[in-house]
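ok so heres the complex, two chains, lmk if somethin looks off
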Amino acid sequence: MSEDREEPQIIYIDRSDKATYDKLVEKGGPLEGMEYKYIFLLAMALGYINNIKTESIERIPGGLFRTSYLNTYEKAIIKAIAIAEEGSLDALLDKRKIYSLAEQYATGGIKILQNIAFDKFGKDLYKKLLDELKR
Amino acid sequence: MKIEYIKLKNFRQYVDETINFLSEDENRNFIVIVAPNGAGKTNLVNAITWCLYGKELHQLKEKYLGLPLINTTVLKNMKPGTTVNVEVEMMMVDENNGKIFLKRTQGFRKPEGQSGQGKNDNDVIPAMDQPLTMLRLNPGQKDWILVQDPSYIVNRLIPQSIEEYFFFDCERLDKYFEEAAGEIRDAVFKISQLQLLENAIVHLDRKKESLFKEELGNKRRDAKDIEDRVRGLTEQLDEMKKIKDREEKALANLEMEKEEAEQEERKYSKLLESHENINVQELEKRRNSVNAELETDKKKLRELEKERLNMLVKIMPTMLIKTAIDKTSGFIAKKMDAGEIPPDFSEKFIEKILETGRCICGADISNSDEAKKKLEALIKGHDKLSNWSNELLNLYHDLEIVSKEIDHFKEKEVIYDDQIREIEERIRRNTITVNEISDKLDKSSIEQIRDWNNKLQEWRKIKDKLSEDIGWKKAQIDQIRAQISKLEKLRSDAITTHEKYKELKHYDAFCEECLRIAKKVKDEIMRDVKNEIEKKTKEQFLELIWKEKTYTDVKIDDNYKISVIHESGMEAIGTLSAGERQVLALSFMAALNSVSGFDAPIIIDTPLGRISREPKINIAKNLPNYLKGKQVTLLVTEEEYTHEVREKLRPSVAKEYKIEFKEQEVGGLAKVVEIR
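and the predicted structre for the whole thing:
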């Protein structure tokens, strides 16, 4: 197994998803003012729980945010996904793979979040997210 | 560049011969080597090409076909198991007295177990293949320098592809004109030393081809496309800015209208508050106070809802992937239970003991294979992840905290829900209170109060509507601003591309101009070279040919196809006799050499073989003039080198040799004897 002990410095998303991230956090947006990292983690979790990931990502130039913005707990849940996916703690040996997997799930999950946040039904986003948790 | 001497050792029929080419008289540049056919003239040329290029490039006589390079008599006398070298060395000297020494050696080993008699005696194995050795002595220097890449220098002196124009074989004369004309043109191209110009053309062509791709990549567009895009984006931007100005003015109007509505609202509210009826006064004061509380509560409600939503967004990933968290924690717990983490030892610690050969107890284990094996087995059986025990323990701890956050969220969620419910209830109650007060005032028996209250309510509705409109307008303006910002970036990118494109167009035009000039210069030089060769070939041919009046012109077309024009005006090359063709070839070769920039010696094998007496004398008389300044070696037979020829060449001849040849059972022995 190849090892890459260095975690990547940048988190990337697919070039086509940037507009969705921006629409969510822009002024008047459903998650106005929130940092990109929270949207990314939520998208990643939604992708994971719905088992939707996109393996080939056309990376956005410059990336979405630096991994240094993630705190230790946020990094822990990213690692947990990789370990659960591989079924072994060996997943920790390849840091690049861990983050690449997170990006793949986030690319799958952002479409789900987009549907939840921008659908036409009047229910507020909080209630729609709670509904998603109950599924 | 002249040959000073050639030394041959065991090469074909030459066992140990040295031929000196220089004389003290610098004006004498001709060397004549006289030998009967088959005595070794062509092999002398081959010795030179073998030394320079490692190959015998001229046609071997039939008796040497299939024989090794080594002299057959030497080979026959070799004892089995011994090795003998074949060597050719040359010393060349330039006009400034700079020298080049060249030597090629090939060893031949006779295999063991041969009798020294019979057919198998000629079996020999090339034993050692030494590359060409080249030493250089620069003018005025004393130390010889070993040349690292001799083949490169050799090819600069006389490129192998055109060696036959310097080592000229008259036996092959007809072939010179049978060659594809294009090959002669290419050879002329090479001897004209236009390679540098050609390289520049190729480079410019490549640069021009890749210019836009390298600099602009996929952004490459035609100038018109880029200009249209910049223009289009500018128009869109101007339009968007106009819309923004219009919308901002509309917003300012709405804000003014709202300000007006608020003033009107306040005016009627104050009228009610200052009414003589105390009950009315109190109702209005109460309504104002409840309205203020309503505004505050609505704002608070929005804030609480946003906080609760943000809290949910932050904790939701943990809640969604709880199964993955539990699974990971389970893996780590299992390792802890098994005592694998923290590990009993660090892999690095064991590696250090192995490296130093000293145990922590101080024992020297550097000579104990058993101890080393045990330590190596420990490393081999050691789980890599155990080295990361700290990371695993931290992860376990972090995931525990993250999981607890879910419980904290649930506790906070209850608090948020309670607060929100409380505020919503207060808003509901206060709204009812405001409506009740409005109803009371609306049902007042005093008309003025009813009127003021109605007006106040109307202005409040107008104000609320205007607030909504202002919010909507602001959102619209934000959207327009975002579009403007995006368009500005696109336009800026397009302008940058356009500027780059203009700059590249300038380079492109420069490349194009350089290419045009380089091609023009090349064509002009090629044409001049061709014209010069044509002129000299014609002059020399017509001067040398014995039927001077029969032929009137020699023409060379752009592809170097040679035509000889008969006095009748007809092309006559197909009807030239062998001797006439030889004269034409000699004239052409002399012209080529005089026009080419190469400063190389010329060797002509059998130059007068097919030529009859009178023209032979004519050629002997004129050749030194045509090849003035060049060192020329003529390899001739006695029949060619008649008394008259000798006399005509005498003033130019530096050295005269004859090859004395002794036929052997296989091959032969040749000695080069100086006769003058």
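quick notes: Chain A touches chain B at residues 26-28, 31-32, 34, 38-39, 41-42, 44-46, 48-49, 72-73, 75-77, 79-81, 83-85, 88-90, 92-93, 124-126, 129-130, 133 (CB under 8 Å). thats all i got rn
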